Amino acid sequence: MTFISRRRLLLGGGAVALGMLQQTNGRAALPGPVPPRPVLLQRALSALDRHGATIKQRDVIGIVDFSQASRTPRFHIVDVMSGRSQSLLVAHGRGSDPDHSGWVERFSNSPGSAASSAGAYLVGSGYSGKHGRSQRLIGLDPENSNAEKRAIVIHAASYVSDDIVRTTGKLGRSQGCFAVAQTAIMEVLGQLGPGRMIYAAKI
């Protein structure tokens, strides 16, 4: 759990030091948890205000920083009032990273692209599918308006874990969904339930 002061959350702040990957005996050391970058927080809060008529639950938001590598805990769950946040691993779509470098190279809103999309999402209803407990997402911006048509959801995946980062230095890739660790899915769904917002960007 990381604490971000209310002033910093609302007004921005200094630069955030990012955890860097180190090699130890051929295995990658895990990057340390970091809070969301101030510029991304500002963008997310602006999106929260812009979509205020649609997003009814405004106490907790999710922020995905696609400017960071997949090995970094870049899915930030932020308590808007207290400023507290926690950061988790999340995979991006294979269409956004065709060479499997671990970095998002591009976004796409096109069906069949298997890419991640930027923008604000409304968290929809939950369901149980082939990945277990999952949560539907509704795209609120032009760049992710096809999220429902593309079946972009939050789900757990075996290719997202600390062990995979230690072994390969990066996560596996999804079909465009926000895939999190199997050990984290219930916590994510519990905090980012229906009516809340997830904001994804590469800045």
Strand order of the largest sheet: 1-6-5-4-11-7-8-9-10
Q: Give unreliable regions as ranges.
A: 5-26
What can be said about the biggest beta sheet? 9 strands, mixed
Instruction: Tell me the fraction of residues in β-strands, as a range.
Output: 25-35%
Which CATH-level-2 architecture? Beta Barrel
| CATH fold group | L,D-transpeptidase catalytic domain-like
Report helical residue fraction: 10-25%
CATH superfamily: L,D-transpeptidase catalytic domain-like
Rg calculated over all Cα atoms:
16 Å
How many distinct folded domains?
Answer: 1
Mean pLDDT: 89
Tell me the name of the CATH class: Mainly Beta
Structure, explained:
Helix 3 links the parallel strand 9 (about 155) and strand 10. Strands 1-6-5-4-11-7-8-9-10 form a nine-stranded mixed sheet. Strands 2-3 form a two-stranded antiparallel sheet. With about 200 residues, the chain is an alpha+beta fold. It has helices at about 5-10, 40-50, 160-170, 185-190; strands at about 1-5, 20-25, 25-30, 60-65, 75-80, 85-90, 120-130, 130-140, 155, 180, 195-200. Helix content is about 15%, strand content about 25%. The protein is globular and about 45 Å long. The longest helix has 13 residues, at about 40-50. The chain has one domain (about 1-10, about 30-100, about 115-200): Beta Barrel (L,D-transpeptidase catalytic domain-like).
Topology:
Layout: E1 2-3, H1 6-11, E2 22-24, E3 27-29, H2 38-50, E4 60-65, E5 75-79, E6 84-88, E7 119-129, E8 132-139, E9 153-156, H3 162-168, E10 178-180, H4 185-191, E11 197-201
